[in-house]
Write a structure and sequence with these properties.
By secondary structure, the chain is α/β, with parallel strands linked by helices. 37% of the residues lie in helices and 11% in strands. It has 21 helices and 18 strands. The chain has a five-stranded mixed sheet with strand order 1-8-9-7-3. A three-stranded parallel sheet has the order 10-2-16, with no helix packed on it. A three-stranded antiparallel sheet has the order 4-5-14, with no helix packed on it. Strand 8 and strand 9 form a beta hairpin.
Length: 644
């Protein structure tokens, strides 16, 4: 059972307050001090249930008090672990006040042990606003406070806005309990049946009330059970002190209280849809602080946190768990909503597990998924405080006796635990990367080896192959290199080979020059000095079946022949098409941004060219300057339709 600090004051006064007050009935919590957390895929723990089971009692998320997300759950819409989201409440009704306890809550149907009754909803406020409202309510003379703590200083206030769950009374022998569930990235409090409950029975739970420095008097318990402890929040029975404090004296305020006359009646207004109001309901001082929680010194005496109280109950003096049965309760507190200090204390308890059976129980109860969610949060919000906690979480993973089955079934909505751990091996923090690498070497040696080999292959491919931009720069350098030589040929009255008129009487396009072979060496001038030494003999032309000597299109000779299956020929044709398409799309802003469309055009043109050349040449294609101009002209004509 999750221990929940609840403040529901039941002190009575002889003066009568207003006869009625307004209560807005809301379907879910309203966050006034901060925005509601967005559900991210890395925050969703995915169970391993089958569709036939439908996330029954054996669901790992259900055991950890985590509701499934239908988007990621294997059961989909058939998932039965969505009771908070679907608001599968029991039939309850308001009880009229009969004694000093005031109104109560009664069930209309029979309840089974462990059945979900209703969610406790209200306004979620931070610690500063919580303390301000307590002072305000006391000044207004309110007899009832409806505060219930969540985690990390946040409190649900159901005084003005809530639902029927706010009318649940305290009992030293309750038939219900509170449980904190993680629903859609937020912590929610649900009321669950402790035992079988008959219909038309009042529902109660233990408030676990704690007094603060502003409240000096203890609250007398009015449950009337045989095991009544006398005061709300007392751990031992103290009935005699309760009688002396308040009750048997005829002049006491309790004897003057008439429920039918003095209890103000709520006027409930249904609010079907409510929006969060961050900072809207806070005081002026709270808004100036930006709604952030700050610590108080002297105003409120801070006691132990909820996690500290729980660990003190289940651990020995040395901080060691006393039983394997407490393992699942410890795992339930591994949620990012709790403070760094509380999570660190839980890690310390796990690392102090004395037996292997206890450590195996942690793995069995799905601690890996909870640790993955926490570590992902710490890697995204990397601060000086989160970094030591990330390293400590990796120490916990290394400490546990992991099995292949546990590693495979642990995952979040974003990735599996295996993928997350392998990515963590490349973390910029060397110490965290070293610890993650040690865990991967121990449990994921084959996957780690495959990942490293894949990275090496990718790096080699990037180093060996130049991208489209690199090829563009190379062509620009070639054109700059050829310009002075072309000017010299023109001064001598000749034409460079790249400007020779073709068979159709047209000059080749200037853009096609980049794909043509380099011009021959400059001829000797008539009045030039004596000729230099004879150049070395030209290289012999490669055989028709060879493809090893032609890596760029400029190196192709007229006598070179490729077969249709040659990879070099395919690459050259695609290079021409890529150049023309990407150059044509420079002025088209819409098409330039749609990279997928550009790639589709390139693939379409490439397939058409290859098909036509195969049909024409019958499997053998001669690559020469005419083919260059033909492919380039075909691509240019095809791109005209996009320029329009």
């Amino acid at each position: 059972t999750t221990t929940t600090t609840t403040t529901t004051t039941t002190t009575r006064t002889s003066s009568c307050t207003t006869s009625s007050y307004r209560l807005d009935i809301i379907p879910k919590n309203v966050y006034t001090s901060r925005p509601r957390r967005r559900v991210r895929a890395d925050d969703v723990m995915v169970c391993d249930c089958s569709l036939s089971e439908g996330c029954s009692e054996n669901c790992i998320n259900r055991m950890m008090f985590v509701e499934c997300d239908p988007k990621y759950c294997p059961c989909g819409d058939e998932c039965k672990n969505c009771r908070f989201q679907k608001r599968e409440y029991a039939e309850v009704t308001l009880m009229e006040p009969k004694d000093a306890k005031g109104f109560g809550l009664m069930t209309r149907q029979a309840l089974k042990k462990g059945q979900f009754v209703i969610e406790y909803v209200g306004e979620v406020v931070n610690e500063e606003e919580h303390n301000r409202r307590k002072v305000e309510y006391r000044k207004e003379g309110k007899r009832h406070f409806y505060f219930m703590s969540i985690a990390n200083g946040e409190v649900i206030d159901a005084t003005r806005r809530g639902n029927l769950s706010r009318f649940l009374n305290h009992s030293c022998n309750p038939n219900c309990e509170t449980q904190k569930w993680q629903v859609g990235g937020e912590l929610c409090i649900g009321i669950f049946a402790l035992r079988d409950v008959d219909a038309n029975t009042e529902l109660t739970f233990d408030y676990h009330f704690e007094r603060d420095a502003q409240q000096t008097q203890r609250l007398r318990c009015l449950c009337g059970e045989p095991n009544c402890r006398g005061f709300v929040g007392s751990k031992t029975a103290n009935v005699e002190d309760a009688r002396v404090c308040l009750g048997d004296d005829p002049s006491s305020s309790a004897s003057l209280y008439d429920p039918a006359r003095d209890e103000p009646r709520p006027v409930m207004v249904e609010r079907g849809h409510v929006e969060d109001d961050p900072l809207g309901s806070l005081s002026t001082s709270s808004q100036q602080q930006g709604g952030r929680r700050r610590r108080f010194s002297g105003q409120v005496a801070r006691g132990q946190t909820e996690v500290e109280q729980f660990l003190e109950t289940v651990c020995s003096e040395g901080g060691v768990l006393t039983s394997d049965a407490h393992v699942i309760a410890v795992v339930r507190y591994l949620k990012p909503q709790y403070s760094i200090f509380e999570i660190s204390n839980i890690f310390q308890v796990i690392l102090a597990s004395p037996t292997r059976s206890m450590r195996e129980e942690f793995v069995k109860r799905g601690i890996l998924s909870a640790l993955q969610v926490l570590m992902h949060r710490y890697t995204e919000e990397l601060t000086k405080a989160n970094l030591p906690l990330l390293r400590k979480a990796l120490d916990v993973v290394s400490f546990l006796p992991l099995t292949e089955e546990a590693i495979i079934r642990s995952r979040t909505g974003k990735c599996s635990f295996t993928t997350f751990l392998l990515d963590l091996c490349r973390h910029h923090d060397q110490e965290a990367a070293r610890r993650a690498g040690a865990i991967a070497e121990k449990h994921l040696a084959s996957q780690l080896r495959w990942r490293r080999e894949s990275q090496q292959r990718a790096q080699q491919q990037m180093a060996s192959s130049s991208g489209w931009r690199d090829r563009e720069r190379e062509r620009e350098r070639d054109r700059d290199r050829d310009r002075p030589r072309i000017r010299e040929w023109r001064q001598d009255g000749g034409r460079p080979p790249s400007l020779v008129v073709n068979a159709n009487g047209k000059r080749p396009r200037d853009d096609a020059r980049a794909f043509l072979p380099s011009p021959p060496p400059r001829p000797a001038h008539k009045t030039a000095a004596p000729p230099a030494a004879a150049p070395p003999p030209p290289r012999p032309a490669p055989t028709p079946t060879s493809t090893s000597n032609a890596k760029r299109f400029k190196e192709i000779s007229d006598a070179f022949v490729w077969k249709q299956s040659s990879d070099d020929f395919r690459a050259i044709v695609r290079e021409i098409i890529e150049y023309r398409v990407k150059k044509s799309t420079r002025d088209n802003k819409v098409l330039r941004k749609d990279k997928a469309k550009v790639e589709a055009i390139i693939d379409k043109l490439y397939n058409k060219v290859m098909k036509k050349e195969n049909e024409r040449a019958g499997g053998a294609v001669t690559v020469h300057k005419d083919l260059v101009k033909k492919v380039d002209g075909y691509a240019r004509g095809h791109m005209k339709q996009y320029s329009k």
